[in-house]
Amino acid sequence: MKPFDRRKFLHWSAASLTALGLCGMPPFLRRALAGPLTSGKKLLFIFLRGGIDAVQAVIPYGDTGIPGQGKKTYLQARPTLGVDPAAAHDLNGFVSLHPAMQDAAEADGPRLADIFHGTLDGRGKHLAVLHRIGYESQNRSHFSSQQFWENGVPGAATLEAGVFNRYLTEYLEQGNPLPGATVNGNQMVIMKGPTQLPVLRSINDYALPANVPLGTPPSPPNVLGTGLRGAYGQTTYNPAIPYNPLTYSTGVALLDSLRFFEENVRSVPYAPEPEAVPYYAAIADRGFAGFLQDAARLLKQVPQLQITGVNQNGYDTHGGEDGAFPRLVGDLALALTALYLDLKPIWDDTVVVTMSEFGRTSEENGNRGTDHGESTVMFVLGGPVAGGVYNADPSRWSSGDLFSTANGRYVAHRTDFRSVYADLIRKHLGDPAGRIDAVIPGTTALEAQNANGYFSSLGFLG
Amino acid sequence: MHVRTRLSRWQVRLFLWVLLVVPGSWAALVPPVLAEPPSEPVTGYFRSPQFIRADSNSDGAVDISDAVFSLEKLFSGGGNVACLDAADANGDERLDISDPIYTLSFLFLGAQAPPAPGLECGVDPAPGELGCRWYPFCPDDFPLIVHVLSRITFGPTEELYSRVQTKADLLEYLDEQLDQVPEGYDPAVHEPAVWERIQALAAPAPPGQPGQARDLALARLKSGLVVYATSSRWQLYHVLAQFWNNHFHTQINALVQGFFNEAPRGGPALPTTEQIFQAADTSPADGSLVEAEWTAFRSIHPGAAPWQDFGRETRNDGAVSLQEFLDHRFCAYWKYGRPQDAAAVAAQMEEREYNLYRRLALGRFGDMVEACAKSVAMLIYLNGFENTVRSPNENFAREILELHTLGVDSVYTQRDIEELAKVLTGWTAEWVARAGYAAGDINFHGKPDSQAYPLNLREPPPFRFPTQQFWEDDLYAWGFVVRPQAHDWARKDLFLQRYGGTDSLGNPVPAAEEVSIPENLASRTVASAIAELDRVLDRILSFRDTAKFISTKLIQLFVTDDLSLLEKSQPIPPDLLAGFRAADLDGDGAIERSEWEAPIPLVLPNGRPPQVFERLDSDGDGKVTTREYQEPDLLQACIDAWARTGGSVREVVRTILRSDELLSLKFYRAKVKTPFEVVTSAIRALGGAPTNQHLALTANDLVLAGMELFNFSDPTGESELGFDWMHTIGLLERLKYLNRAANPVSQQESRLVWSPGAFQERWGLDTPQRLIELFALLLHGGDILEEHGRLALDAYQSAAGNKALAAVAYLLSLPQFQKQ
Predict the structure, then answer these.
(1) Of A186, A388, B381, B456, which is the most buried if we count CB atoms within 10 A?
(2) Per-residue pLDDT, B20
(3) Are residues B207 and B466 in contact, defined by beta-carbon separation less than 8 angstroms?
């Protein structure tokens, strides 16, 4: 019995699932008990692929190093990449924002720091910077670590079901045409799983050529259905053949969502908030900008949509980081600012969160770059967010912590990423039926144990 | 064997006499007309039925009843001849008295056996007028043929289906594909028609000319892959070439952006730019460049930019100063100065790398790893070129272990990555003179001690601009070079037990496997630096996990994504049993978790890794049995073949292709096609001819479907596993492509040139039913749901435009076409 993943393929064994508390009632029954969620809470995530150099984005100048133990300061560890403190923007007297995150603004328009300090409009301080996020026994392979950040089970390299898919499956409302969607042009594990959620490249392109019959599902009196929907809606295929159920159900999900987009999204006039437009336009990575705009549009336009997300690629800065990094975080700052402006109508119900598979080596590597490291930084933005810096002030960051892992090369983590996810789920999206362990396996046990305080809630959602 | 000769000669004579004088006796001998079999074998069109020659009455045996049956048919018109070819005992394409005589002579007089296919099931080698409606006693090999051809080729074609009619044909085809690829395959020599098509692909625009050359270089590269895949005779070879190129993947845009567009790395350097300025600023040499000077310069050096490109610089004074020249983003359009030139450089590098893996595709795996380590594209992509003793870079070392050989976290540890990175210090890519490289050394690996040509002196005065559209002139190329002064000559230790590495079964690395390279105090030569890697590679290639990791990927390529579905029926081999017993401390035949995690002093103080236990304990009962511990039979057979042959890809692939797991219907349609396979199988099945423009559009379609080929961002290469491809956006883009291929809305939308007319003419497709029948056969091996057939007919009838095209597009859009 594998409640959150029906595919036989996964090697994550049934018994370990039982151990993690995932067995028991079949999902439909649990759903029936839990009841549909009608909170209207929304989440937009941005996955920063490649491992963001966390201490370059949010710079811990406050770490004065320990000269006697050879623990350098940020500037000593970064002779060529190091950013002059005068150029960076101070957040809390301990960490500062990379200048490219601050400068990435329309001439006199709002900047990310204005949002951080809550000085922009009457909305208050709604940007949280969560430093030192990671997990025990950090894996330094992109592919494995992304997998863990997405499936929520560090160590389960082949588990292809994602945290957000499991959440939406637990609280799936019968007949909800679009509980979630990825606007990315490619599938992400975090949104993969038992519930088929559309992946699209752009709202406008999400259609078949005009002469292809979309068709209707098989239903009396037309038992065959018509067109492609008829073809993929047949149920007489052999379900024992691997990927048959997946192929047919993907077709059904596709063709139904194509019709939904045609009738309920594209046909409704839409424009982003005018203040956000120049920010979207200034993002250098045009693919990223397009994905982001459409994700925001879906959140605003489709009331039933709870979770959507995009990728920002390119953070694997082994060399030439001085050139690439400002472009990347500049785009990210523009993106967060654009969303702040664009999501205003649904601000109180919306949280934007970034994640990345790991941070990087604290010391630069000689190719003006940094290698794979350990803890990373997350930005969380939205009406429900209690703004501020978390895990990066003298109470949570001692001098020398730039090199605080056992091998003395990386920043050790203070908070497990699953604790951040658990907060997002329980305090924001809602978990009325207490299904957190089905969404993030083992959460309650890990919290009870709370080894090293890794599972103490940071409180960024109050 | 189907021949019964129980009767003696005199008995036959008596028998025949009775038959002749007692007319009523015929009926007793003629078998009842056989009922149609429950599922009729697929025949007709390009599929010939199998039959046994001389089995006139279609009862599965050649005996006297066949002669009797034929005689009766001839003289009294009785009986029902289902397979005329079978009744044509002498194979002369006529049914007459000579047939029963032939049969009787064979049976009782020791005369010649019936001609091909003879007494074993087979097809008529020269089909004539007679034909065979159905013959139930021979196996229907078609599903197996459909299955295997869809795995080892880029898609079956009508021609291939015509040629491979039986399982015997299929085995012959497998052997041909494995063993008869010309040694040193060169398309120009061995497949001139394919090569001609490759040569005709659109080339990037020459330097200095506007255009989308950057995308064109990549599109050309991808188009080439489609051409090889759809038109080469050596299908398996190209499947493997693409597999290896993906296994050792390098990303073209990473080369462009991270190297050729970066001045201090592979890009243009300022002194050179200054030299260009000075070379052009001659009349007078006054530090100010005017149009006439530049035009004169360009007449000698057509690679340079046109004057109007200096728009902003000339706006004020009509001239370009040295500072303006240097500030101009693409200053002189010096080689690689423009993004599209850099892309052309990188594309050529990718092409050569691909050609090298193709050449080695069926050879020794170790040769490919070595080629990968020396490949210029790889040295750039994974930062090997900047891995020096002063600033070691782990990137490439990690991926050799994780992605190219052992597999993630098998045997090696972070310490091994760091040590291997040291072994590889000083390995780099340089601009070298071509002279002295052997003709077959297509990727310039053979002279690692070549003198590096300094980047900023790439073109010493007088300037030698490229005269062709490509980056390379006939003198220089990028090649593999080792710089001894950048190599770390200190001691390196790999695979030490105390590092705590374990293999994929949780065993500590044996002490005997440690590799120590002592500090080099003596001959610090290029050869001695390379010898260090040879030593480490020898060890890496000898680990069982390398054989296991590579074999697993090959099994996933050809048989099934999910190896847990494979049989485990063989006894556990001794080497695995030894590992098992070492962990099974109480010797009760099962490893409990406590035994697994028991410390092994000095080696694994924390016990064996728990995640390996989770993986091995497939039924989740908290203990690992020998059955769970051992490998599936096919994987073990591959590992054995690897060990027996020193890592011969050909023999591992042969083991897979000859296995019951592939040569049965157990994994029929069990894989999802990649977008590339969707494209190639559609082109091949329709017999389509894509133009250059079509191929460029198709390359873009593949990107939209999630397949970047040479431009995929991660060193993992693109996935072979179905669940990575089957999602809504992927399916949407596949369906878009297939409909544009078969039934485009407009000419601009089309993806290939094809016409159903040839099919209609060839096979007499005079009704929609026949049209659908033929294309269901060609595209789906005839195996579609009954409902799908009716819906396809509906699609035909309700189509507003060309009905035949609409029906074919619909058949291509069925779920089955996404499977292989």
Answers:
(1) B381
(2) 47
(3) yes
What is the band of B463 on the pLDDT scale with cuts at 50, 70, 90? very low
Shared domain for B427 and B477, answered yes or no, is: yes
SS (H, E, C) A99-150: HHHHHCCCCCCCCHHHHHHCCCCCCCCCEEEEEEEECCCCCCCHHHHHHHHH
A284 touches B: beta carbon within 8 Å: no
Report residue B536's pLDDT band, with 50, 70 and 90 as the boundaries.
Answer: very high
In one-letter notation, the amino acid at residue A355 is: M
In the block, tokens 């349609």 appear at B669
As a whole number of angstroms, the distance between CA A114 and CA A269 comes to 31
Query: Helices marked H in B320-444 — which ranges?
Result: 322-327, 339-359, 365-374, 376-381, 395-399, 414-423
Q: Which of B732, B749, B783, B802 to mutate to test the interface with A (most CBs of A within 10 A)?
A: B732
Pairs of residues, one from chain A and one from chain B, whose beta carbons lie less than 8 Å apart: 201
In a domain, B259, yes or no: no
- pLDDT tens-digit readout, A401-424: 999 998 889 999 999 999 999 999
| pLDDT interval class at A81 (50, 70, 90) | very high
Query: pLDDT digit string (tens) for B171-206?
Result: 999 999 999 999 999 999 999 999 999 999 876 544
- The reply to whether residue B393 touches residue A367, judged by beta carbons under 8 angstroms, is yes
Assign residue B630 the CATH number of its domain.
Answer: 1.10.238.10
| Predicted local distance difference test score (pLDDT) of residue B46 | 86
Q: Give how many domains chain B has, as a whole number.
A: 6
- Report if residue B105 sits inside a domain: yes
Check CB contact under 8 Å for A244 and B819.
yes
Contact (CB<8Å) B723/A185: no
A367 vs B: CB within 8 A? yes
State ipTM. 0.85
For residues B480 and B572, membership in a common domain is answered with no
Tokens of B466: 């490229």
Chosen from B673, B723, B798 to mutate, greatest number of chain A CBs within 10 A: B723
First to last CA, chain A: 37
- Cross-chain residue pair A367–B386, CB shorter than 8 Å: yes
In eight-state DSSP terms, residue B125 is S
Per CB-CB distance under 8 Å, the chain B contacts of A200 are 728-729, 732
Q: B46-72 in b/e burial notation, b at 16+ Cβ within 10 A?
A: bbbbbbbbbbbbbbebbbbbbbbbbbb
Average pLDDT of chain B to the nearest whole number: 86
Band of the pLDDT at A36, cuts 50, 70, 90? very low
Are B730 and A187 within 8 A, CB to CB? yes
Rounded CA separation A306/A350 (Å): 9
**B residues 691-720 lying closer than 8 A (beta carbon) to A:** 704, 706, 713-714, 716
Question: Domain extents for chain A?
Answer: 31-202+273-453
- Report how many helices (DSSP H) and strands (DSSP E) chain B contains, helices first: 37, 8
Q: Is B562 within 8 Å of A8 when comparing Cβ atoms?
A: yes
Domain hosting B594: range is: 559-657
Q: Is the pLDDT of residue B362 over 80?
A: yes
For residue B345, the model assigns a pLDDT of 78
> Is domain A31-202+273-453 classified as CATH 3.40.50?
no
A131/chain B closest Cα distance in angstroms: 25
In A, which residues are within 8 Å of B814 by CB distance?
231
Q: What is the pLDDT of residues B102-129, one digit of tens each?
A: 999 999 988 899 998 999 899 988 877 7
Q: How far apart are CA B101 and CA A78, in angstroms?
A: 97
Whether A11 contacts chain B with CB within 8 A: yes
| Domain-ending residue, one of B113, B138, B163 | B138
Q: Are residues B587 and B685 in the same domain?
A: no
Q: Which residues of B touch A211 (CB under 8 A)?
A: 739, 743, 745, 799-801, 806
**A133 and B CB contact within 8 Å:** no
pLDDT tens per residue across span A141-173: 888 899 999 999 998 887 889 999 999 999 988
Q: What's the rounded mean pLDDT across residues B693-718?
A: 92
- Residue B269 pLDDT: 46
